[in-house]
Design brief:
By secondary structure, the protein is α/β, with parallel strands linked by helices. It has two domains: 232 residues, 4-Layer Sandwich (Nitrilase/N-carbamoyl-D-aminoacid amidohydrolase); 70 residues, no CATH class. The protein has nine helices and 17 strands. The strands form three sheets. Strands 2-8-9-10-11-12-13 form a seven-stranded mixed β-sheet, with helices on one face. A six-stranded mixed β-sheet has the order 7-6-5-4-3-14. A hairpin with a 5-residue loop joins β5 and β6. α1 packs across α2.
């Protein structure tokens, strides 16, 4: 019998389990965002188990008369201590909250003075940490661009400490824009060595236009840095984008979700971080027309496959635990219709019957 997971007992068949080199694409025009409807699927990757750390630490607060360079030094010490909590787990990716190096306790004028002295010092600190620990780090901060404008950005640093991608918040709040933050126009997708990642920041999570652009781009993971949690929106983005989702939220639960919207890791009131290993080799299928095929898949591969059912949704997550054989290859072997293919077929069938003769 394969590995079965259920968050609670339900009258479902026992073969269903419950709950369960960087190439950049940033700033492309909308027409180019994501494959066309009839585009061929990308080459299948082998099973990818990725260890992800999310840090929900609050940034450092300082006295109003602290000199800017002293704030930088103390901020580096603060984040050095926070990173030390997760580095023993040897993560592939560490995600930090929005505005992670913005000091508390200062006026806006003092904060701006700090930014002008800070320049790239925090970036260089995080880059050294990424290089020294051979991991990716995403840090989010206010930054000044070469044209002098200010952006609220998430920066992806690769395992060598190089800047691999920069995402500018597409939907700053009205207050942010009034304070000089310029909105970013584009989504950002980065192909890391463990999969494709996309980015969103805080208020972004409220806007369907942005979510749908990412859904077309088909990331393996959405990275969300924020000071706002988003509640059910995190779950919905994970399911809508058909991908894992990691949120790093300052002072609030920082969580990791699977593509069904199941929470698989979270910080707590005792620990402001979470670390878990996820399997990116997975795909979603609807139960309609697939019951027998899913049963046959489980009977053949047993613990080599995990079929996760969250209940009530009608969709399951197929994850490969078999080296050299992907979840999509398993689905093709048993002619399991994947979720979006089924929804496309249902839509086409519905449209044919709109005007019965």
């Amino acid at each position: 019998m394969g590995r079965l997971v259920t968050p609670k007992r339900m009258p479902f068949p026992r073969f269903l389990m419950s709950a369960c080199c960087v190439l950049l694409w940033c700033g492309r025009p909308l027409a180019a965002e994501g494959p066309s409807k009839d585009a061929k699927p990308q080459a299948v990757k082998p099973a990818q188990r990725v260890t992800i750390s999310t840090l929900g630490s609050r940034p450092l607060s300082v006295a109003a008369d602290t000199p800017p360079q002293e704030i930088v030094n103390r901020m580096i010490g603060h984040w050095k201590g926070r990173l030390a909590q997760v580095l023993p787990d040897k993560p592939d990716l560490i995600v930090l909250p929005e505005a992670c190096d913005r000091p508390g306790g200062l006026s806006e004028e003092k904060v701006l003075e700090y930014y002008r002295v800070r320049k790239d010092q925090m970036r260089d600190f995080f880059a050294a940490a990424a290089r020294d620990n051979h991991c990716y780090i995403v840090y989010s901060a206010k930054r000044q661009t070469t044209d002098g404008t200010w952006r609220n950005s998430s920066v992806l640093l690769d395992r060598n400490g190089a800047v691999a991608a920069t995402y500018d918040k597409n939907y700053p709040t009205i207050g942010e824009i009034d304070d000089g933050i310029v909105p970013g126009p584009d989504i950002c997708i980065a192909d890391c060595d463990f999969g494709r990642v996309g980015f969103a920041i805080c208020f972004d999570l409220n806007f369907d236009e942005l979510r749908l652009r990412y859904a077309k781009a088909k990331p393996d993971l959405m990275i969300f840095s924020s000071v706002y949690h988003g509640g059910l929106m995190q779950t919905y983005w994970a399911y809508s984008c058909r991908c894992h989702f990691v949120g790093a939220v300052a002072g609030l639960p920082s969580e990791i979700y699977d593509p069904l919207g199941n929470r698989i890791a979270s910080s707590t009131n005792y620990f402001d971080y979470a670390v878990t290993t996820v399997n990116f080799d997975c795909c979603l299928a609807h139960l309609d027309y697939n019951w027998g095929r899913l049963r046959s898949l489980n009977e053949k591969y047993g613990r080599g496959v995990t079929i996760t059912d969250p209940g009530h949704l009608g969709s399951v997550l197929i994850s490969s635990n078999t080296k050299g054989l992907s979840a999509r290859e398993m689905a093709r072997e048993f002619e399991i219709e994947l979720l979006d293919d089924y929804f496309d077929r249902a839509t086409e069938y519905r449209n044919k019957h709109l005007n019965p003769k």
